[in-house]
Amino acid sequence: MFLAPGASAPARLARFASVVPRARAASAPAPPRPCRARALARPSSLPGGPRGEAMVAARSSASASSAPVAAEGTPRRARVAVVGAGAAGLAAARELLLEGHDVVVFERSRDVGGVWVYDPRIEAGDDFVRRDPNRDRVHSSMYASLRTNLPREVMGYASFPFTRSFGGDARRFCGHREVRAYLDAYCDFHRLRPKIRFGVEVVSAEPLFPLDETSANEKKAASDLSTQKSDLSDLSTPEAIAARGGAWGPRWEVVTKPASDDETAAADRAADAEATTESFDALVVCNGHYSEPRAPSLPGASTWPGAIAHSHDYREPSAYAGKSVVVLGAAASGEDVCRELATVAARVALASRGYAEPEPGEDPGDFPAESYPENVERKPGIVRLIAENSAVEFEDGSVLERVDRVLYATGYHYAFPFLDLGAEDTVDAKSPLRVALGSSDNRVAPLYEHVFPPSLAPSLAFVGLPWKVVPFPQFELQGRFVAKALAGTLARSWTREAWAAEAAGERAEADARGVASRHAHRMGEAQFAYNDRLSAWCGAAPLGAWRAEMYRATGRRKRAEPRTYRDGPDAPWSDEAAREEAREEARSLGFEVMERNA
After folding, report:
1. How confident is the model over 247-284, as pLDDT tens digits?
2. What's the CATH code, domain 31-112+192-290+416-522?
């Protein structure tokens, strides 16, 4: 929490509460509805007077291929729609506001935090294979006992250190409620709530292409709708889309409606049920990627007599008490859930594709066999489910019989239901958005630096796609990259052609290395160089080196002490030097820190 110099703790808390707006939603009347998914004469969203004229001149002088640059001393101010008020959306909103943009954040739930908001409801339960396609959707995949797998200091946003407790959980590797409380505090500290429209779902977002990008007078004169329609005759290539979008890219028509979930009162659903349509200069997608379960189609699953569930619906282990369980997937959540299930289940098999028992002297990986409870055994991936004897067959030919439950911990799909995206590398000439961008098998492409589709840059951006990263500080860097690109204040010049070429080159290199599509946004150690590149684009100093040191030290501790790496040692932590640097950085910014051994 920020400390005002010279104030007592209660007075400082009162001061913080008094200056932060607590309104849960703030919305302006919707502007007149534009023509849906058609070419428009781009309406000016610029301010009037000399500043507005200078910005129009800057926009007019930039070509479609060159980097848009604001007139000297007058950064462009865009109206930006942000989808989602989770950790990524909050960071994006903060950076956009700092750069002077007009921001509206759409959040379908009633509070901030996204996936970090624990929800006891589940979607499919024990019948994942035959789940109802019209079921009520649950955004959160949080289970009750979840603790972070990174220390709070490294998790924290650079602008709001996570060096003290916000929800009463002082552990370094804290529970999900503490993280949610931290995100709530971040939102209030940066006064973001008035910019968020809660209980509002984005139904669709479509690009609006202008007739030209030559001058404000010519745009105003192009008012004949039939002429505008016919002007969309050729948007079948990314190059044509880039040219038509002009220097700043197309505007966006965003259609929203009141969210319909169990948290929304019936009266709210009845009122204002009509969809609302608004136009924006830019769209920033921050809807997360841990809500749409990803699972294999296993032979025999439809007739298997046991229960089949996905970890998206896992909340606590009581339903597994005394059962024989197979968990498929040994990444972070699979490991965590497996160990929790072992406390109540009769036996647990943890299966993962390609697993083989290490030979003597061979590296056992992150979790050696002896680190598991006695009733847990490791298995390779599942080949099929067998109805007879409720059996499960694995890749090595072994079979477990009398299995009661299978739990998929197999990750999630990237899903953007409000965007008309086709499969990657599939061109649909009738849809400019499908020409410019595709998404399949968890690869969104083409993207420059996992953020901008080159032919639509900078008016369409994604924040939060990379995984196996320290997310919160990276979200702020991505948000800053987007905000400065939209303002025309990036520290480096760029062109869409250069970004497209670099994105294509990275794709070719990944294909040559055999990187699976589903790992396209996986970073790991590469995240630190990536973060530094974004900082350079923004003309900012890189994040503190202690962050990479703490991340690596945590990985080493996790491999050495897989059962206890989250729990504080009697001696100083192995990353104590990095921890002290984090604490000193927080102090220098005026933030509280906890006692050293908390």
Report:
1. 999 999 999 999 975 444 444 444 456 899 999 999 99
2. 3.50.50.60
